[in-house]
Amino acid sequence: MSVTFSDLRVAAYCPRKLYYRRRGPNRSPPEHVAERRDLSTCYPELLAADDATLRDLPIEKPPPAYRKRLRQTRERLDCWERLVDPAARNVLLRGKDARGIAHKIVDDPPRPAIVSPGDPPPSGVWEPHSVQAVAAAKALAWERQRPVESAIVEYPTHGVVRAVELTTRRKSQYRSALRAAAELDGPPSRIENEAKCEPCEYATECGVRSRSLGSLLGD
User: Fold this and answer.
1) Do residues 8 and 180 touch, judged by C-beta distance below 8 A?
2) CA dihedral of 38, 40, 46, 51, whole degrees rounded to 10
3) How far, in whole angstroms, is CA 142 from its chain's centroid?
4) Under DSSP, is residue 113 helix (H, G, I), strand (E, B) or coil?
5) For 143-193, what is each residue's pLDDT tens digit?
6) Among 46, 6, 8, 21, CA closest to 161
């Protein structure tokens, strides 16, 4: 059975989180996720909106700064027109190893777009989103039987859109997440990056505890 894009994204963040997620009930995304993703469907309207309108929307920048960022994205992106009017939206892709939803399909050349409701890093994209984007690109390539060399990740609450090239490093991260998700049959070891544990909804169940002074000193 193929792995879902969302499972790959979580595995890239923390395999242990994926273990607890799979054990729990199926959860629909919170309502605010859809509201934030919906921003990616109306970029031209957002560029033309006044401050009062933008303040009523789930954007993470003051209205003038948001419009400026979105204008910069429009000027920099080589596929702006195709992104705001994509060939398809919310497409279920079924690849050789993974399946899931591409929020947009941009043609000429074909590439999938993944829309994140969260915040972007200062540059590039977060590794979980990179893995999800690579999975979508590979699935699209499998369906169309032609190479897909890049994908797109959108952070619409910030007016940021970034290209993801399928580099050797990103493909390696994808394969690592794929192995972690496909072979998961028990709780993996806890990750060392404890900062990831703080916002995790499974932190209590996982049993994460603050490190003692002795452990910090190497005892």
Assistant:
1) no
2) 60
3) 20
4) strand
5) 999 999 999 999 999 999 999 999 999 999 999 999 999 998 888 888 777
6) 46
What is the residue type of 72? Q
Mean pLDDT of the chain: 91
pLDDT of residue 194 exceeding 50, the answer is: yes
Name residue, tokens 């920048």: 61
Task: Evaluate whether 131 touches 9 at the Cβ level (below 8 Å).
Answer: yes
- Tally the C-alpha atoms within 13 A of residue 161's C-alpha that lie toward its C-beta: 26
Q: What is the number of residues in the chain?
A: 219
> Taking 70 as the threshold, does the pLDDT of residue 216 lie above it?
no
Question: What is the token pair recorded at 122?
Answer: 């200062």
Q: How many CA atoms lie within 13 A of 198 on its CB side?
A: 5
Q: What is the pLDDT of residue 208?
A: 54
Q: Specify whether the CB–CB gap between 101 and 7 falls below 8 A.
A: no
Residue-wise pLDDT tens digits, 62-100:
999 999 999 999 999 999 999 999 999 999 999 999 999
pLDDT over 90 for what percent of the chain? 77
Domains of the chain: residue spans and CATH: 3-216 (3.90.320)
> CA nearest 104: which of 122, 120, 81?
81
Q: At what angle do helices 168-182 and 15-23 cross, to 10 degrees?
A: 40
CA 208 to chain CA mean position, Å: 25
Here the tokens at position 182 are: 């496909």
